């Protein structure tokens, strides 16, 4: 038996610290042990020539089977981290060089650059709606933008991912600069996704992006210059608004009512309009057919371009969905952007822009300055997922789940917060709840979080903070919250709002 382990005390403790008990979670035990060994070797805590525990002792120390321990040593040996010596055991290989951490002296104070002078100024008043990292552990997460992992067809996605990583498929996407994977996904978008929004496009009119966020940035860099004015919904999505403003645009707020964005008189002088017609962010209302016709007519009359953000496409569950603005556009005045994030996963970061071919070509050149290409493995997997029908099935299931959740949250709000007002959602996964009294939304947010209720305060969506204070509202997302948590969550939210208002009155 290994003499190191037969000695009592410190040597045994050393191995237990280096190789902690494996966890029974979603990571295979063999992978956990291999990672622990590799980390210790590369960190220099297991120097070259160190004798390792026997397979039996390793199993006992880490709580795995002996077969698993043997497989761990076989894998580490194949990868060159350890070597087997006949009748003597396993040892850390001398061929592996530990990672050395560089310890450089701090630069002299006089040599430090003046970063405040060099960096471009950032408007400190801009609003963001970043949620806390603990949102997963909150009892009632009424958050938007997260998908429901329990609903996702993981086995079908894995199957498509395996196909995307077969040798023939890999050869199409792993080479730098080749766009075969992009063409495959764009083809599926053109055939299977865009037609449901009424949009006909060719391959030269579609650009894949790293999600909608990159789409905003690319469009702002291409279109915005000094003196350009961009009309935005107010309240509206703050990220594109901030991106346009950072690139020098003059932002013109447009009010929103129950029919969507209102094209007020000063809109006529704007160069661009950014809007969310399908389910307005954050109110969730749908732009009416009459308003759509009005916006397109004004765009032609005043030589304007509309940037249509179809954030949560194809999730209409009550009535017939209206076609996208891009589908009604006859004069190439609408630039359409969307993504696969809401239905598949935000982590995939697959977005796309549909625009006239000359615009797409310039956007492609601009994107080339930022990245060489979108990750091809994700593109091929998503293309196969759509092509094999999994996307359509998932979409139908999502509509059914969202309809059930929308009905639950609507009934609960009417029962427990009858004094608040809202428009029942007909699609998407958000509800805009307008409160009857003035509230300190920042304080209300903190009180709700303390009680396990998480929501988006409405003031962050307004261009002027004072407007948000005068129109207190909350955005409630219901796309990822468990159905059994919706009613008790609204009950708790009602208690928090009532208690906050009572304290405010006093």
Task: Give an account of the 3D structure.
With 506 residues, the protein is of the alpha/beta class. The chain folds into 3 domains: 3-92, Arc Repressor Mutant, subunit A, CATH 1.10.10; 133-145 and 393-505, Aspartate Aminotransferase, domain 1 (Alpha-Beta Complex), CATH 3.90.1150; 154-387, Type I PLP-dependent aspartate aminotransferase-like (Major domain) (Aspartate Aminotransferase, domain 2, 3-Layer(aba) Sandwich). The chain is 42% helix and 12% strand. The chain has 19 helices and 15 strands. The chain has helices at 3-6, 10-18, 29-42, 55-62, 66-78, 115-118, 154-164, 167-173, 180-193, 211-223, 238-246, 289-301, 325-328, 357-368, 376-387, 390-416, 441-450, 465-470, 483-505, and strands at residues 82-85, 89-92, 140-141, 206-209, 229-234, 250-257, 260-261, 272-275, 305-309, 334-339, 351-354, 430-434, 453-454, 456-457, 473-477. Strands 4-11-10-9-8-5-6-7 form an 8-stranded mixed beta sheet, sandwiched between helices. The longest helix has 27 residues, at 390-416.
Comma- or semicolon-separated keywords:
19 helices; 506 residues; single chain; Aspartate Aminotransferase, domain 1; disordered N terminus; 42% helix; alpha/beta; Aspartate Aminotransferase, domain 2; Arc Repressor Mutant, subunit A; three-stranded antiparallel β-sheet; eight-stranded mixed β-sheet
Quick recap of the structure?
By secondary structure, the chain is an alpha/beta fold. 42% of the residues lie in helices and 12% in strands.
Question: Secondary-structure blueprint of this entry?
Answer:
Blueprint: H1 3-6, H2 10-18, H3 29-42, H4 55-62, H5 66-78, E1 82-85, E2 89-92, H6 115-118, E3 140-141, H7 154-164, H8 167-173, H9 180-193, E4 206-209, H10 211-223, E5 229-234, H11 238-246, E6 250-257, E7 260-261, E8 272-275, H12 289-301, E9 305-309, H13 325-328, E10 334-339, E11 351-354, H14 357-368, H15 376-387, H16 390-416, E12 430-434, H17 441-450, E13 453-454, E14 456-457, H18 465-470, E15 473-477, H19 483-505
Parallel strand pairs: 3-13, 5-6, 5-8, 8-9, 9-10
Antiparallel strand pairs: 1-2, 4-11, 6-7, 10-11, 12-15, 14-15
Helix pairs in contact: 3-5, 4-5, 7-15, 9-15, 10-11, 10-14, 16-19
């Amino acid at each position: 038996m290994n003499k190191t382990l037969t000695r009592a005390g410190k040597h045994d403790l050393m191995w237990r610290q280096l190789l902690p008990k494996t966890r029974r979670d979603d990571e295979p035990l063999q992978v956990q042990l291999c990672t622990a060994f590799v980390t210790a070797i590369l960190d220099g805590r297991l120097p070259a020539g160190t004798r390792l525990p026997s397979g039996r002792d390793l199993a006992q120390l880490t709580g795995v089977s002996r077969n698993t321990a043997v497989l761990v040593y076989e894998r580490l040996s194949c990868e060159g981290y350890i070597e087997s010596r006949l009748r003597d055991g396993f040892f850390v290989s001398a061929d592996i060089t530990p990672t050395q951490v560089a310890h450089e002296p701090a630069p002299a104070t006089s040599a430090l650059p003046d970063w405040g002078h060099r960096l471009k100024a950032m408007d400190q008043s801009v609003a963001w709606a970043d949620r806390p990292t603990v949102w997963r552990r909150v009892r009632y997460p009424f958050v938007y933008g997260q998908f429901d992992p329990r609903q996702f067809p993981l086995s079908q996605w894995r199957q498509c991912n395996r196909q995307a990583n077969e040798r023939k498929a890999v050869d199409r996407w792993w080479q730098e600069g080749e766009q075969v994977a992009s063409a495959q996904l764009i083809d599926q978008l053109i055939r299977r996704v865009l037609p449901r929004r009424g949009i006909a496009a060719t391959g030269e009119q579609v650009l894949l992006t790293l999600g909608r966020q990159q789409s905003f940035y690319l469009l702002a860099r291409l279109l915005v210059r000094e003196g350009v004015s961009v009309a935005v919904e107010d309240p509206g999505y703050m990220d594109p608004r901030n991106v346009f403003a950072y690139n020098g645009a003059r932002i013109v707020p447009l009010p929103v009512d129950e029919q969507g964005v209102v094209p007020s008189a000063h809109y006529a002088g704007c160069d661009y309009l950014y809007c969310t017609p399908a389910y307005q962010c954050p109110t969730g209302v749908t732009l009416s057919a009459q308003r759509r016709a009005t916006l397109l007519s004004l765009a032609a009359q005043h030589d304007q371009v509309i940037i249509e953000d179809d954030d949560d496409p194809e999730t209409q569950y009550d009535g017939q969905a209206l076609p996208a603005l891009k589908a009604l556009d006859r004069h190439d005045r609408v630039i359409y952007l969307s993504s696969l994030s809401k239905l598949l996963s935000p982590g995939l970061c697959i977005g796309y822009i549909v625009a006239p071919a000359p615009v797409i070509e310039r956007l492609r050149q601009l994107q080339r300055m930022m990245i060489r290409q979108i990750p091809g493995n994700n593109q091929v997997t998503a293309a196969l997922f759509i092509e094999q029908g999994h996307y359509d099935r998932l979409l139908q299931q999502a509509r059914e789940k969202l309809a059930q959740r929308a009905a639950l949250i609507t009934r609960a709000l009417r029962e427990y917060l009858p004094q608040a007002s809202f428009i029942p959602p007909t699609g998407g996964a958000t509800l805009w709840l307008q409160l009857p009294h003035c509230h300190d939304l920042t304080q209300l947010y903190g009180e709700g979080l303390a009680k396990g209720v998480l929501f988006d305060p409405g003031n962050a969506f307004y261009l002027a903070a004072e407007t948000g204070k005068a129109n207190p509202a909350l955005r409630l997302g219901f796309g990822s919250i468990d159905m059994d948590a919706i009613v008790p969550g609204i009950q708790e939210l009602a208690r928090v709002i009532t208690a906050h208002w009572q304290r405010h009155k006093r």
